[in-house]
Amino acid sequence: MKPTHGQVRWLFVRALALVYLCAFLSLAVQVDGLIGSRGILPAQELLGYVRERTGIERYWLLPTLFWLDASDGALLLACGGGAALSLALLAGLVPVPVLALLWALTLSLAGVGQVFLGYQWDALLLETGLLAVFFAPGGLRPGVAGEPPRLPLWLLRWLLFRLMFGSGLVKLASGDPTWRSFSALDYHYWTQPLPTWLGWYAHQLPSWFQHASVAAMFGIELLAPWLVFAGRRARLVAFFPLAGLQLLIAATGNYAFFNLL
User: Fold this and answer.
1) How does DSSP assign 68-122, residue by residue?
2) Helix axes 232-252, 207-223, angle to 10 degrees
3) pLDDT tens per residue across span 171-203
4) Dihedral sign of CA atoms 135, 145, 5, 125 in order
């Protein structure tokens, strides 16, 4: 039996719930030390600085629920509430309002998180989460049946295309000679933020293999995304290299929930 878009949406929403759960739980154990009242960059100080220099436009310039309360308890409650909502989404409970609340909490934390929540995966979670609000099924506990609206579906495909194709394009446009000479992986594994133990072994592979891997990566990032807009068989062809690349990246380096997302 051929899978339907309804089945794919069912899986997508629950997979996104797991990503949200990872994001909120990981932040919960760090938020006090990062942006708490005694943290490195306190959220209260940021909000106070903005409040002194702006008027009502502050709510547009810095959209966050923490204008109401930015205490340590409120920050921790937002993380805990996000984790609880993620579990509700995983159970399939009222997905549309739950996704809207998860997005609002993520946006609120990103607004006061400053450099700590300004990475590519944070921006990607916000964009994916917002599209998911319009992509998810309505109702209290919807099942698998039913086709999703076409516009959010195509916008999610467009997001995937921009992410993957842009990742390949920006490497070539950076002017870094190691990408153009296919030698970047000679240095990548020990210069990335948090290499894994498998990354150490990957670094020991011969230079010809590293260069071939860079060429394969460019092939995946610059060619496979175009198949996302083609028919079902073409999308299946694109799935394996795109997903496989993320698995390899996750195995050799720690990029938080980026690869999962």
Assistant:
1) T--SHHHHHHHHHHHHHHHHHHHTTSSHHHHHHHHHHHHHHHHHHHGGGG-SHHH
2) 140
3) 999 999 999 999 999 999 999 878 999 999 999
4) positive
Model confidence over 4-59: pLDDT tens digits?
888 999 999 999 999 999 999 999 999 999 999 999 999 999 999 999 999 999 99
Nearest residue to 245 (alpha-carbon basis) of 127, 165, 183: 165
Tracing tokens 């923490």 back to the chain, one arrives at 66
| Residue with tokens 């960059």, as numbered in its chain | 41
Closest CA to 189 of 164, 177, 207: 207
Calpha distance 132→12 (Å, rounded): 9
Task: List, in sequence order, every beta strand (DSSP E) within 109-187.
Answer: none
Whole-number Å distance between alpha carbons of 73 and 221: 43
Tell me the residue type at 245: L
Residue found by looking up tokens 């809207």 in the block: 100
Residue 253 pairs in a beta bridge with 195
Q: Which residues pair with 195 in a beta bridge?
A: 253
- Burial code (b: 16+ CB inside 10 Å, e: under 16) for 139-178 equals eeebeeeeebeeebbebbeeeebebbbebbeebeeeeeee
Residue 25's closest CA among 92, 76, 99?
Answer: 76
Q: Is the pLDDT of residue 1 over 60?
A: no
Between CA 157 and CA 225 the distance in angstroms is: 9
